[in-house]
Amino acid sequence: MPDPANGEAVESTKRRRLLGLLGGGAAVSLAGCSDQEPSDGSDGEDGEDGMDGEDGEDQGPTNADKAQAAWERAVDNPLPEDEELRQEAYIEMEEAARDDAVLIPLYHGLTELFWYDYVDVPLTGALGKHWQQLNTTTVEGKSDLNLINSTFDELDPIMSTDTASSIVITQIYENLTAFPNGVPEIENQLLEEFEVSEDGTTWTFTLRDDVQFHDGTEMTAQDVKYSWRRTVESENSERAGFTLNQPVGLGIDAETDDDGNVVPDSLAVEVIDDYTIEIQLTGPNPDVLDVIAYSSFSVIPEGYVGDIEGYDGEVTHQEFSTEVANGTGPFELDVFNVDEDVTVVRNDDYYGEVASVDAVNWEIIEDSQAAWTYALEQNADRFEMPTFAYEADAIDAEADDRGRDVGTYGPAGELEEEVNYLGLSEISTFYFAFNAANTDRAVRQAIAYVMNKEQIVEEVFAGRGTPAYSFLPPAIWPTGNDGYNDFLDDYPYSRGESDPQGAQSVLEEAGISSDNPVDITLTTYESEVFQTAGELIRDLISGTGINMSLETSQFSVLQGRGEDGDLEMYSLGWIWSWPAVPYGMFQLEPLNTRTSTMPNETNGFYLDWQTALNEEAE
Amino acid sequence: MSRWQYFVKRLLLTVPVLFAVLTFLFVMLRAGPIDPVAARLGPQAGAADRAQLRERLGLNDPLWEQYVDFITDFITFNFGQSWVVQAERDILDIAINAAPATLWLGFWAILLPLFIGIPLGFYAGLNPNTLGDYTASLGGIIWQALPNFWLCVIALAVLRRTRNGGGPFGFDWYAFGPDFASRNLSITGTPSLEWFSTTDILFLPVPYVSDWTALAIDIKLILPAAIILGSASMAAELRIGRTAMLETVNSNFVETAKAKGLPDRVIVWKHIFRNALIPLLPVITSEAFLLIGGSVIVEQIFNINGLGRIFFQALTQGDLPMAGALLFLFTLIILGLNILQDFLYTVIDPRVGYDQ
C-alpha cells in the first residue's frame, strides 16, 4: 500500500537495499544481512480469509494490513518522545506475523562462556563478548589474559564483518558510544554529550577532550570526520550502508555520483571546533546512538590510511589491516600473526580505567579438539565448550535480572575443577518462513501447531539454544521482560508441546483433510538444526492432510530462489548488528516483502506478504 | 647415454607435465563452477562492484590472453593475492610464512618411517615366521589401518589427561623433557622455530643451534603429530621392506654368496640390503605426497599453522587462486621428488633407465 504520509520510507527503500548488499562473505556473526526474500506470488493470496475468526471476511483489515500500518506508524514517528508509540507498533507487527504464521521463529542462539576461578571478568551481555573491553578483567596470579579466537585477517574497523576480528578491534579502537560488556544499554565512550535539533535530523556531538591515540596525539573532531568518511568513501569499506541508510543505519546525508558512489567529502559531517562535530541526517532517526556504537564507526587518527581522497596515508592499507594499529582503546596492538595468535598490550595512558593485565593474548584455534585441549591446560582463561565435552547436568545456574544464566559448571568430565558459567541468549533469531502467495494460512498455522521448539532445541543442540516464539529476541523486546512474558502467554499455537489436534482443527476449517490434501515443500539451507526440525515436523504433520516434502539447497541458491518467489516454506536466520528493533523489523513490512522487485527495490523477508494486503488484493 | 644425459632428458620430460598441470589449473579456475567474482565478493554484491572487479581481475580479456598471463604468472611465482582466506595478502608470502611449520612436521614424519619402519621390516624379513616377525607385521597392519584423524583426536585426549601426573604410572607428558606446564605452553600449536641463529663463517651465514631448550620444545611439540603423520608410511615401509628382504634373501646370488663362504654380515649389508632398497625407493619418495595430503588433517587438529591447514581453508572457502597456487607448489615438489627418485635409481642400480 502506498504510504502517503511516509515519503521517507519509500525513499529509503533504495537505501535499505544497500544494506542488503553489504553482507560480505565473512563469517556469520556481526552482519545482520544473512537473509533475504522470496517470490512473487502472482496468483494472489488465498489463505487470507480469517478462518480463525479474528478478522471478518474481506472487509476488515488483514494481519498484513495491520503490520503495514504499524510499520508506517513507527517510521513516521521517529522522535524520542514517541518511543512508546513505536514500541507498541513493533509489537503489533510481531502479533500480525504470528497470527498469520508467515514467520515461525525456531530458536535464538545461545552463547555459553566458562572461565576459571582465578579470572574476574564482568558478565557479558546479550550482544556478545565481541563488545566487551577487557580492561576491567583481572587475572589472579598471571600477568596476561589468555583467550581463544577464530581465524580472521583484518583489523581495519570498516572491513570487519565477523565476530573474531571485532573481539580484537574493540580492545584497540573506540566509538563515540558503546555497549559496555555487550549489555544492550548504550553509554558514552568518546562522547561527552550530544544535542538533537527539534526535527531530529541534526545531531551535535561533543567529544571528550582528554583522549589520546596510542601514538600520543590527541583525538579531535577531525579524526571522527575522517574515520566516518572512510566508511563510505574507502573501497575497503564493507559497511557503507550502515552510514548512509535509514532506518537500518544512521542515514547521514551525502551526494552520490552517477555510479552511485559517494562524492568525496560530501558526507554531511561537519567539524564545528576541535571537540564538536555535527551530522545532518536524511530524516529523524531514533537509533543514532546505537548505530554509532557499531565497529565501523570507530575512530582512527586523521590521515592514517590514504584510501580516501585528500590523504596520502602514513601506512599502507595492507599494513593497517594486519600489522599496525593506532586507536584510543585500553590496549595497543603488539603482534598479529595471522592464523596463529594476536597480542595486545596495555595502554598505560588510557583515559578510562587502565587495564590490570599487562597483555591479552588470543591463540587462534579452529579445531574443537585443539581448543578444548588448550582450555583444559588453563592456557585459555575463558573459553567456550565443544558439545562433545558438554554435560548439561553439570550446570548450576540461575537467571539474573537480564535473563542471563549465571552460575557454575563442573567438575565434569575432563574438567577437574568448578568453573564459572554464563549462558546468554543472543540477539539472533533463526526461523521458518513462508511465501504467503504460495501457501495457505491454515497450512502455516497447522505447522506452527505441531512444531515443538523445546524438543527440537533439545534434540539438536543438547539444549544449547533458546526456543523462540517471537522474531524479536527477548533481550531487545520493546516492552521489556514482562512484556515479553505476556507475549509468550498469549502464544496461540500450543507453546511447549506438539499439538496435532490443533493443527487438524484449523485444517478442517479450511477444508483440508487427508482426503483433500495439500502439498508443501520445505527448503532448508545446509544446517543440521533445520534439517532435523524439518524431519520432525514432516512426521508430525503427516496424516493431517499436509504432505510435506523436504529439500536442502545451498545458502546462496536458497537466497536466489527466495528472491524469485520460488519458495514455499524455508529456513533462515537474522543476527542483529546493534540492538535496535527496526534493524530487523524492516524485513517484516509487508510492502517490503514483495519478491518480484527484489533485491533492488525491496529487501524484506521472502514472504510476498503484500499479497495479503486488502488494497493489493483488489 | 651417460647418467647425466639421462638426468637432463628426465628433467626436460617434466616440462610438458608441468604445462599440463598448469592448463588443468587454468581450466579449473576459469571454467569451473565457482565464479571468481562471486567467490570474492559474496552473494550480495551489487552489479557495479561485480563489473568493476571483473575488469580488475582481467576476466574480460580474451581467453588466450588470460591463459598466457596465467602461465607466465605462475611460472614466475607471481600468484597474486588470496581472495578469501587471508584476503588481499600475497599468496607467496602466506605460503612462505606457513612452509617452515610444515617442513618441520614433514622432517620428523619422514625420519620415523625411515629409521623405525625400514629396520623393523628388514628384521622381520631376515627372521621370517618368528614371533618377532609376526609382532612387527601385525603391528604394521594395525598402524596402517588406524586413520590419522582418529589417532590425532585420541592422542590429544590421552596426552592432555597426563597433565599433573595423571597418566599411567604418574606419567606426565607435560613434564617429560622440557616442562610445558611451567612455561604455560600448550601441546598444540605452531612451533616457533626460533632456536637457530646464523653466524658468518668466511662471509657466509651459517646457521647453528643457539637455543637448545627451544629446539627441545619444538621437537616435543611436533613429535605426536609427526608420529601420527608418519605412521601410515612407517607401516607401509615395514611391510614392503619385509617382502623385499624375503625375496632377496631367497634369490640365487645370495645362495652363491653363501656358497663362496662370505660372512653373513657382508651378505646382508652388501648384497641383500642394496637390492632390497630398489622396490622401497618409490615408496619412500611417494611418501612426500602422503605427507602433504596427510598434513592437512593433522595440522588442523593439532592447530599447526602450516601449508596443509591453509590448503584446507582455501578449499573449503573457495579461495581459488590460493588453492591453485598451493596445488602448483605441491606439483613442483612431487615432480622434483620424482626426478630425484629416478636419479637415485641409477645410483642404486645402474641397470635402470639410461642403459638400454
Radius of gyration of chain A: 25 Å
Shape of chain A: globular
Overall structural class of chain A, as computed from helix and strand content, comes to: alpha+beta
Task: Assign the CATH superfamily of chain B.
Answer: MetI-like
Poorly predicted regions of chain B: none
Poorly predicted runs of chain A:
1-57
What overall form of chain B do the CA principal axes indicate? globular
Order of helices and strands of chain B: HHHHHHHEEHHHHH
Task: Provide a count of the helices of chain B.
Answer: 12
> And the CATH topology of chain B?
MetI-like fold
Number of domains of chain A: 3
Strand content of chain B: under 5%
CATH class of chain B: Mainly Alpha
Average pLDDT score of chain B: 83
CATH architecture of chain B: Orthogonal Bundle
- Major sheet summary line of chain A: 6 strands, mixed
CATH architecture of the largest domain in chain A, please? Answer: Roll
Mean pLDDT across all residues of chain A, rounded? 85
**Helix fraction of chain A?**
25-40%
**Radius of gyration of chain B over alpha carbons?**
25 Å
**How widely separated are the two ends of chain B?**
9 Å
What does this entry look like structurally?
The complex is a heterodimer of chains A (618) and B (356). Chain A is α+β, with helices and mostly antiparallel strands. Chain A folds into three domains: 246 residues, Dipeptide-binding Protein, domain 3, CATH 3.10.105; 229 residues, D-Maltodextrin-Binding Protein, domain 2, CATH 3.40.190; 60 residues, no CATH class. In chain A, 27% of the residues lie in helices and 19% in strands. In chain A, the strands form six sheets. A six-stranded mixed β-sheet of chain A has the order 20-1-19-23-21-22. In chain A, strands 15-2-18-17-16 form a five-stranded antiparallel β-sheet. Chain A has a four-stranded mixed β-sheet with strand order 5-14-13-12, with helices on both faces. In chain A, a hairpin with an 8-residue loop joins strand 6 and strand 7. In chain A, helix 2 runs antiparallel to helix 3 and helix 10 packs antiparallel against helix 13. The longest helix of chain A is centred in the N-terminal third of the chain and has 18 residues. The N terminus of chain A is likely disordered. Chain B is mainly α and 356 residues long. Chain B has a single domain, classed as MetI-like fold (Orthogonal Bundle), CATH 1.10.3720. Chain B has twelve helices and two strands, in the order H-H-H-H-H-H-H-E-E-H-H-H-H-H. Chain B has a two-stranded antiparallel ribbon. In chain B, strand 1 and strand 2 form a beta hairpin. In chain B, helix 1 crosses helix 4 and helix 10 runs antiparallel to helix 12. The termini of chain B are close together. At the A-B interface, helix 8, helix 9 and helix 15 of A face helix 2, helix 5, helix 7 and helix 11 of B. Chain B: It is a multi-pass membrane protein. Chain B: Pfam families: BPD_transp_1 (PF00528), BPD_transp_1_N (PF19300). Chain B: One of its GO terms (biological process) is transmembrane transport. Chain B: Its main location: membrane. Chain B: One of its GO terms (cellular component) is plasma membrane.
